[in-house]
Design brief:
The chain has 23 helices and 15 strands. With about 575 residues, it is an alpha+beta fold.
């Protein structure tokens, strides 16, 4: 029978329970996500006398926890990419030891971890060398400014009353390291006031302001029972997970991925570590949602919902993890072997298109025999914006086609799938993409792969510049209706091409394309026409824009058809 009890303890008592291992976290808890700025504000709220919300604790023992249920120890060392972003850490997994542990934190992990690392842990910001590469870290301290004038300078965050900040270097003798409150001279009642007076002797402004801060800091940590919590007895792990999800939805809402990971880790505590190994290795820059969806896809689940979870499915994921991991390795190698050197890193935020390929690789040992068809599938899905809507329905449809085709992706199969077959209408839709559409950039990227320097960044630019194709710039030999059409086509694919992002494009000025071209020498003109895919026989004069547009449109259409098969 589940029983709830409301209790309260001091911050110090809570942190001592963490130090001793009495408090742990269930393995389904999400990673630490608070920024340095949020930790600073937590301490500011505490000193201001604001409540720090309630906590939800789960009483655990051998009666309500299974042998294979894992927990995590609290982080003692947290690294941050910046003041706004912590680095994902692997938590140390442990089984329940009833002799030392009796409480798991269902809600309050972020706050307790923040308090714990502030007083007992280590924090640091990732450092970089001159080339911008990671080079160790700079250890930080959480300091509070005791000089009222310094604390209230205009550059201080207006939402905070006190000058509290993580910093790698103490700026003045009036900054107090919050960890120092643990020193014996502050802990001992007989020496505390003398220690406070000694430190504030450095303060030249209002000493009472400084004195009150240190007294308040001590009281908030060691005297006042600020950690108010509900202790739940008798819950099993399924009930604990449900309460964790419900309770967290009232604060910073858990994302669908976080909920999925939490449910997954109830049955497979090592899942987070397995995922992180992939995301720190061959799929650096991707996120958990990609791994989750890919893992579910190979087991015939094209969408992730909590009601699809069961122990059989999780055991399938766990038992076949090596095969799944190999499929992802094979996918990366496949990309490297394609005729078009497509970088898998381009799909960090558009990975849905990869799922059918992973499904085929996972089930078909001879997938390399269809490498050209896989490339054509990838390009068709990108060019035709296949997964821009109704993603789940389309994934289900293409999975069924792959199943019927003995897990192979072939051009013949693609031609039967609505939305992936190549038609004149779809080619025309592609050619009407405009410069502001991210898919326009993608189309030109793949059209120009053999011309690109992979070390450079590229962006789309107009051939005939926008300044030349304005309503009030109509040449007298061009009729109004034609000019209106030309202006509407200015930013469409047939008048675009890729240029290096760092290169200053002369056509961004008022120069006509023909003038820009004529300023080049012969070799430059040849290179320009080649890179911009401009036919030799077409005129570059603005008065002939209509013909230029149609000829280049036909050229691009042919190149797109050739790519897509």
């Amino acid at each position: 029978m589940n029983r709830l009890e409301d209790k309260s303890i001091t911050i110090s008592e809570a942190l001592q329970h963490i130090k001793s291992g009495e408090y742990v976290m269930p393995a389904f808890q999400r990673n630490f996500v608070w920024s340095m700025e949020k930790i600073e504000k937590l301490w500011d709220y505490i000193l201001c006398g604001y409540p720090i919300a309630t906590f939800l604790f789960w009483h655990v023992d051998t009666n309500n926890v299974k042998d294979n249920t894992c927990f995590c120890e609290f982080l003692r060392d947290v690294k941050f990419k910046s003041r706004k972003e912590p680095i994902d850490e692997n938590y140390s997994l442990k089984n329940l030891n009833p002799e030392t542990t009796d409480t798991a934190i269902l809600d309050g992990q972020q706050r307790l971890t923040s308090l714990f690392i502030s007083l007992y842990g280590t924090t640091g910001i990732q450092a970089k060398n001159e080339k911008g590469k990671t080079a160790g870290r700079s250890i930080t301290s959480l300091l509070i400014e005791l000089d009222e004038i310094e604390a209230k300078k205009p550059n201080k965050d207006e939402s905070m009353k006190y000058g509290i900040k993580f910093t790698t270097k103490r700026r003045s003798s009036t900054q107090f390291d919050i960890k120092d409150i643990l020193n014996d001279k502050y802990q001992n009642k007989k020496t505390r006031e003398a220690a406070i007076e000694e430190f504030i002797s450095h303060v030249s402004s209002d000493k009472e302001y400084a004195r009150n801060i240190l007294r308040t800091l001590y009281n908030k940590i060691f005297e006042e029972k600020l950690v108010r919590y509900t202790d739940s007895f008798g819950m099993d792990q399924e009930m604990a997970l449900e309460m964790f999800v419900r309770f967290n939805s009232a604060g910073k809402s858990l994302t669908k991925v976080e909920i999925t990971m939490s449910i997954l880790e109830v049955h497979w505590p090592e899942a987070r570590i397995k995922f992180k190994q992939l995301l720190d290795g061959p799929y650096k820059g991707f996120k958990n949602d990609f791994i989750i969806r890919a893992a579910f896809m190979v087991h015939d689940y094209v969408s992730v919902r909590s009601d699809t979870f069961n122990r059989k499915l999780v055991n399938n994921l766990k038992d076949n993890w090596n095969k799944f991991e190999q499929a992802l390795t094979n996918l990366k190698e496949l990309f490297e072997e394609m005729e078009m050197k497509i970088e898998i890193e381009r799909f960090k935020s558009s990975w849905t298109v990869l799922l059918p390929i992973i499904y085929s690789i996972y089930h078909d040992p001879d997938y390399k025999n269809n490498i050209k068809a896989i490339q054509k599938y990838l390009l068709r899905a990108i060019f035709f914006k296949f997964f821009l809507s109704n993603t789940r329905v389309k994934l289900e449809r293409i999975r069924k086609y792959i199943d019927k085709n003995e897990y192979k992706i072939t051009v013949e199969m693609l031609n039967k799938i609505d939305g992936l077959s190549v038609t004149d209408g779809r080619i025309d839709d592609v050619l009407n993409y405009e410069k502001s559409d991210k898919f326009a950039n993608e189309v030109f990227h793949y059209l120009s792969l053999d011309l690109l320097d992979t070390t450079s960044e590229y962006k789309l630019a107009n051939l005939h510049p926008e300044n030349s194709l304005k309503k009030d710039h109509r040449p007298h030999l061009v009729d109004e209706e034609s000019w209106k059409d030309w202006c509407n086509n200015c930013n469409k694919l047939p008048n675009l091409y890729l240029v290096e992002g760092s290169r200053k494009r002369s056509n961004s000025s008022n120069k006509e394309l023909i003038d820009y071209y004529n300023e080049m020498n012969k070799a430059q003109q040849i290179e320009f026409k080649k890179n911009a895919m401009i036919p030799d026989q077409v005129s570059l004069e603005i008065e002939k824009f209509g013909k230029f547009y149609e000829v280049r449109k036909a050229l691009l259409a042919d190149k797109i058809r050739e790519l897509l098969g």
